[in-house]
Amino acid sequence: MNEQARSSSSRRVAVIGLGSMGHGMAVSLKRAGHEVVGFDVRAEAVERFVADGGLGAATPGEAARGAATVVSVVLNAEQTEAVLFGADGCAATMEEGAVFISSATMAPSIARAMAERLEATGRHYLDAPISGGAQRAMSGELTVLVSGSDQAMAAAGPVVDAMAATVFPLGPAVGTAASLKVVNQLLAGVHIAAACEAMAFAAAHDLDPSKVFEVITRSAGNSWMFENRVPHILENDYSPRSAVDIFVKDLGIVLDIARAEKIPVPLAGTALQSFVMTSAAGMGGDDDSSVFRLYQRIRGAIDGMPGDEAS
What we know:
Number of helices: 14
Strand order of the largest sheet: 3-2-1-4-5-6
Shape: globular
Oligomer: single chain
Number of domains: 2
């Protein structure tokens, strides 16, 4: 690491959004030697981070004051805009030349519009969606896609490196990373829905689910999502690592873009309906592998077999 990177790495970082991903990212930044101040709308999330040795703030603007870098790990574009430009937002308090790292999945056009608005104030916007889950966030081993100006890339480099095992620089155009993240979410959503459908199909044939998992993970039908999500089904543990409603949102973004640009995405559309139905059945806040439970309940209603009543 050069002297400039060492200097940058010791400066204050604000993390806005201390959920399962943001908390892990904040802890990883602190472990790397950054001074980290966190904000979340839930007081208990801030208290948890403070208990882990971080600093807490009462508003996004307070968290961003004096910070060279702000990492936003909120749910969607609307929340990102509020964090930046809403009451007590970051844009008014960030240092001139500071970098706002936006990690929410959103349409690329929205990312570009926010970047243009922020950069007009003399701050930088880095389009930086993330992948990898809460466990990798905590260990600093996320995959991060980044697009933005050379200045934003250079200034934010030590912060991104502290959170990631793999970083994909995608050029200077904000929105490129957002576009590629949407492609990833299309695949992830389809693969989760397919994995849950396959496990429900196996259950209908009274196959041992553990044996199904063993065979498929060593066969051509395997996917990263099958290998990652099916253990939740085997353990009957639907506590949310990634919630159903995340894919209602993300596949909704895919369909919105596809509709506007006339791109055929029939598999994504079908997968979206699986997540929408699962959410409508009361499982929106549960793990996204709950699509399996929906299929089981439907079978129970049709042929008299008991459905999974877990919530």
